[in-house]
Amino acid sequence: MPYKLCFFALLLVLIVSCGKKKKKKRWPGMMMSICRNLWNFSRGSVALYILGYLLYAKTDDSLLISADIFNEFTPDSILNASFGTEKPKLYAIGKFSEKEGTVYLMSKAATAKQKVMFIAAYNKKNEFLAAMPVMKSKKEAGITTSVTIDKLFNINKKTIKKLPNDVEISGDDVYVLNSAAKKFMLVMTDSLGDDAEVINPIDTLGRSYKYAGDYGVGSRNIISIRDNIRPGRVQFYIHLEEKNSNCSGELKGEANITSEHTLVYKQPGDPCALQFEFDKNGVTLKELEGCGSRMGALDCTFNGRYPKKKISKK
């Protein structure tokens, strides 16, 4: 069966044919053998540029991947976080690799209701490191999304919003792979605007922990709790902004489960220590040690009670 790789130039779709394969190979070896020299990072600053159109365009069935093969090398929790019990069609989109041997694979998962573009990373032994969705189908008038992966393997997700009178505003979120931690990390964010929704970097992680979910008021305030692969811990991400003040900031990390209803964040070398206390309606944050510097000023604080947000329907 021929395997083709779909790529998009800055303005139009560029389809690159990679020839036929005589034998079927298992994922990710199958993808790693396709178009090995497709990208030459030494020749340009932009390695790959993907327009949001790719997410909605019909994908050639020759790119279909068996779900069994995909899940053999990529944890099924990656798909479950976006699709639940639904079984999306899976398509091989592209591959690129670092000199050290880390390989990145692009894939598209699609059902009748939604489509998601994923990027997954594997070490030189083809062992899974991390994965994340870089695009999700969300039809909203006036908003376009693109993803750029440069020769330094920075993954830049850009969102552009058109406003009245031909005004455009844009926002960027830049991620890099942390191989040691086995996750993609958000290293820079440039907000789309005051009314834009905050991008939650841990949104796709599991929610089996009793109090996993999102808390806060409005689209610019969020306390997000998700599962951690290590027992007795959870992942969290906090983004808070106070209108008409200089108090705004973020905190992301791991917290220890200290009781049935509480978590505590405290890391060596970090002066900030924070307690999370949950009930069925929300969470109360209490600084055990000063975290004001994370909120823009020493007199700012994470302290407060935040209601649980309703789960938005996809």
Structural class: mainly beta
Describe the strand arrangement of the main beta sheet, using strand numbers. 13-14-15-16-17-18-19-20
Rg on CA atoms, Å: 21 Å
The number of helical segments is: 4
Average pLDDT across residues? 77
Element order, helices and strands? EEHEHEHHEEEEEEEEEEEEEEEE
Poorly predicted sequence stretches spanning 5 or more consecutive residues: 1-46
Compute the separation of the termini in Å. 34 Å
Count of individual beta strands: 20
Portion of residues within helices: under 10%
- Proportion in β-strands: over 45%
Number of domains: 2
Main β-sheet description: 8 strands, antiparallel
Q: Overall 3D geometry?
A: globular
Overview of the structural elements:
Helix content is 7%, strand content 46%. The chain is mainly beta and 314 residues long. It has 2 domains: 1-195, no CATH class; 197-314, Lipocalin, CATH 2.40.128. The strands form 4 sheets. The chain has an 8-stranded antiparallel β-sheet with strand order 13-14-15-16-17-18-19-20, with no helix packed on it. Strands 3-9-10-11-12 form a 5-stranded antiparallel β-sheet. A hairpin with a 4-residue loop joins strand 11 and strand 12 (183-190). The chain is globular and about 55 Å long. It starts with a strand and ends in a 7-residue tail after the last strand.
